[in-house]
Amino acid sequence: MPPPVVVTPQANRTKQPVFTVYPPVDTVPPQQANQAKRLANTVEAYNFPIAPSAIPKSAQKLGHGLRRGLKVLAILVVLCGLLVCGLGYAAFHYFSAQNTPVSTAEASAMASDFMQAVSNRNYDQAYNDLGPPVTRDTTRDQFKNQAQSEDSCYGPVTHYTVINAGTPSKGNTLSYRYTITREKLSRPYQLDLTLQQGSSGNWQVTDYNSNVGQTPCG
Predict the structure, then answer these.
(1) What CATH number has the domain bearing residue 124?
(2) Is the pTM of this model over 0.90?
(3) What are the CA-CA distances from residue 6 to residues 1, 11, 12, 20, 24 (Å)?
(4) Fewest beta carbons within 10 Å, which of 12, 74, 116, 163?
């Protein structure tokens, strides 16, 4: 119990009796006081700063690796998409070009011009109708010598007839077949022409073959 407080009256006043004042006595029951103490101790026990948990370096490296891998995967997906689109575009145009009907009018005119030049022995004009696949390996003089040799051996061309005109072949090519009659031959032979359309759109004779060589020179 706290000590009593003594109140001393002032000196210039008449002496009065001295009163002893005691502080109020704590009226909290002991059971509640003990519970309050335990609660305070519990709060103090758990009231301490919690250190933040550090992320292991291995986990950090794993996270960086996953992000890098996702970026690489995204780039690969984009590249594959572009490649597929490019291939699809090229395939579409390729098959469209294959299915586009080829105009045979200009090709037929070129084949007719070549045959007319050979029949008239105008071999310079016939050589002008030839395309690079022929002129690359055969000069103008070689072509003229070959044609003149056939004229000398089998006679000049007296007649020709187209029997198969403008048959589509591989790519922008057309095939023509003629029967040729020569002066010294007892029967006609066949001549096959192949015409191809160049990048400029012009048709040229790119190949010619005949079975005239199977007949002995007359």
Answers:
(1) 3.10.450.50
(2) no
(3) 15, 15, 18, 5, 15
(4) 12
**Number of domains present in the structure of the chain:** 1
Between the alpha carbon of residue 105 and those of residues 45, 58, 70, 118, 176, the distances in Å are 104, 76, 59, 20, 13
Domain for residue 171, yes or no? yes
Strand, coil or helix: what is 107?
A: helix
Q: How far apart are CA 162 and CA 178, in angstroms?
A: 4
For 148-190, how does the pLDDT look when each residue is reduced to its tens digit (9 = 90+)?
Answer: 999 999 999 999 999 988 878 677 899 999 999 999 999 999 9
CB 203 within 8 A of CB 106: yes
Rounded alpha-carbon distances, angstroms, from residue 160 to 178, 188, 208:
6, 9, 15
Relative to beta strand 203-210, strand 189-197 is antiparallel
The amino acid occupying position 106 is: E
Q: Which two tokens stand for residue 66?
A: 């996953």
Q: In whole angstroms, give the CA distance from residue 134 to residue 120.
A: 21
Q: How big is the chain, counted in residues? A: 218
